[in-house]
Amino acid sequence: MNEHPNDYIKPELMACCGAREIQDGDVVVVGTGFPTMSANIAKHTHAPRAVMLQESGVYDARPRRPALSVGDACLNPGAAMIGGLVDVMGMFLQGGWVDVGFLSGSQVDRYGNINTTCIGPYDHPRSRLPGSGGANPIGTLAKRVLIIVQHNPRRLTARVDFMTTPGYIDGPGAREKWNMPPDTGPHVIVTNKAVLRFDPATKEAYLASYHPGHTIDEIRSFTGWDLQVADDVCETEPPRAEELQVLREVLDPHRMIKIYEGKGYV
Amino acid sequence: MSKVMTIKEAVAAYIHNDDFVYIGGYICRTPFSAIHEIIRQKKTGLTITRGNAADDFDMMIGAGVVRRFISTFISLGLYGLARCYRRSLEKGIPHKIEVEEYTNLSLPMMLMAGAMGMPFVPVKDLMGTDLLKIKGFLGENKYKLIDSPFDGKPVLLVPALNPDVGIIHVQQADENGNAQIWGIGGDCKYGANASKKVIVSCERIVSREVIGKDPSRTIVPDFKVVAVVEEPFASHPGYTPGFYDIDFGFGYLYKEASGTEEGFQAFLKEWVYDIPDRAAYIQHFIDRFGYAGYKKLQAKFDYGYPVSYEY
Predict the structure, then answer these.
(1) Edge-to-edge, what's the strand order for the sheet holding A107-109?
(2) Residue B198: how many other CB atoms lie within 10 Å
(3) Is the pLDDT of residue B155 over 60?
């Protein structure tokens, strides 16, 4: 079963990288797009007992079409439980029940801090972004945060213009100082070029694996800080046949994932 | 005196300039009909709030009815950044609104605290980030960071919110305002109950007897409700579970229109200012997109087992 077809596109590889971080039985808070695809790939392969929540109030949805927002109509019929924001973000997330949260952002820095608020000064933004939504509490409270971002020095930056969502803030001890729950925080950054993980001592993201077709030098030059490289750095495992089969035949038969190529995930 | 009235009457009677207004919805059951009426009546100086805002709040900001926004997030979802919101904050068009920013945990908790009559509520989010550094119109009352009286560790307190008016759209309500929903809740239960008075629009008015067949679905009791408006299709281009689907095509139309100030004004003229009420809105929708376009949005039916509360 571990064949690796070579006709995959980069967003498919990224979705698989996300899926591999999910363990069987995990409670996963998902948004739309990559998170849902990753969680579903995991569910159809190695993690059949992983379950999903949408912050809008839904548990274990059974959508018959890909959800295009966390409030999508298709999330309603068939779900196991529907409440609201206080139920999911309060009872389940703040209550400590969420294992995995998926986030993305316009900027992500070396400590896994995320900006979805503004580019430029807050009072006079060059570009005003949506704001936190559920990102800040997920980044604060989920046990493992998976971050998806495009790999270029504007987005993977030494310091975010605005810290909407906490990663490891300014390094070791910072989350503890702010009384965040123990054993929470960023776990991995998946980009279109690489997978980064976090050094347990420095809390800084380092290069763990490079996607096929990319080099360590290229990745370092596309990163906004002096990216450290793991001793055991290796090539990212390409999508397995069974992962692609789930993605293409079950989850996304219309290949909507291709829109991410247009957004620069190539 | 009957609470049943038109949305025009409800907005005229119960929403005043400079009011603090909670507006429910999460694409699911967005009270768009009321939002259009607020814009038509050219209310000014409103403070608006709810978790996860979308095209509905963007439209109010662009139309100039908003002074302040207690926010967690605003975007056009699939269609990217909220254009009117950006024009307001980046360019001051039509004016720069004041924003106070929380998250999809803390803001719903603040509404819950308001509904419960609590003065404030501790939350675990926001800590250590720039969301603590920026303070808007609430100033020092945005939050208080204290050492917990129980274990001495840092804990964040955020204030309760009690809007002057809450507006929600629901599937069904009776004539007195007992309001029932099913499907994605967002923060509408707490937002409505935190409000000093509630305007309910609904897909259908049902009898008190029908409400009593499944009372667990009621999220707002009639004694909080001041107006009940029967307003089918009121959430379009959002949706109401069991009644009609999201209109993604209309979402695209709004994105394109709101991309420029001129386009946005033309959109308002066509879909808000020149439309007297929701019935005319539906007629205009059918004129523009055909009856097939309207019919396509109508929900299928798939009933569950009826529940029995008998003893």
Answers:
(1) A114-115, A107-109, A156-157
(2) 28
(3) yes
In this prediction, residue A34 carries a pLDDT of: 85
Residue A1 has pLDDT above 60, yes or no: no
DSSP state letter for A119 = E
Cα separation of B175 and B3, whole Å?
7
pLDDT value of position A31? 84
Contact A84 B125 (CB under 8 A): no
Task: For an interface test with B, give the residue of A30, A65, A132, A165 to mutate (most B CBs within 10 A).
Answer: A132
> Cα–Cα distance between A186 and A197 in angstroms, integer?
8
CB contact at 8 A, A209 and A195:
yes
Per-residue confidence at A256, pLDDT binned at 50, 70, 90?
A: confident
Comparing CA positions, the residue from B138, B143, B152, B98 lying closest to residue B121 is: B143
Question: What pLDDT digit, counting tens, does each position of B134-148 carry?
Answer: 999 999 999 999 999
In the block, residue with structure tokens 């945005």 = B142
Residue in the structure block whose two tokens are 């001495």: B152
Structure tokens at A169: 């803030």
Q: Which tokens sit at A93?
A: 């997330």
Structural domains of chain A sorted by starting position, each given as residue range(s) with its CATH number in brackets: 10-260 (3.40.1080.10)
Q: Rounded to whole angstroms, how far apart are CA atoms B267 and B273?
A: 9
Ranges assigned E (strand) in chain A: 27-29, 51-54, 58-59, 81-82, 100-104, 107-109, 114-115, 118-119, 127-128, 144-148, 156-157, 186-190, 194-198, 205-210, 228-235
Q: How many CB atoms lie within 10 A of CB B209?
A: 8
Q: How many CB atoms lie within 10 A of CB B52?
A: 29
Q: Is the pLDDT of residue A181 over 90?
A: yes
**Residue with the larger pLDDT of the pair B114 and A250:** B114
Q: Which residue in the block uniquely carries the two structure tokens 């667990």?
A: B216
From chain B, the residues in CB contact with A145 under 8 A are: none
Domain spans of chain B, in order of start: 1-118+162-299
The two beta strands, A205-210 and A194-198, are antiparallel
ipTM above 0.95, yes or no: yes
- Tens of pLDDT along B243-259? 999 999 999 999 999 99
The dotted CATH code for B1-118+162-299 is 3.40.1080.10
Q: Residue with structure tokens 């408006």?
A: B229
Chain B residues 25-84 with CB within 8 Å of chain A: 26-28, 51-52, 71-75, 77-78, 81-82
Cα angle for residues B52, B129, B150 (degrees, 5° grid) = 95
The model's confidence at residue A2, banded by pLDDT at 50, 70 and 90, is low
CA distances from residue A38 to A14, A15, B124 in whole angstroms, order as listed: 8, 5, 27
- Asked whether the predicted pLDDT for residue A91 surpasses 80, the reply is yes
The verdict on B85 touching A (C-beta cutoff 8 Å) is: yes
Q: What's the rounded Cα separation, in Å, for the pair B232 and A70? A: 24
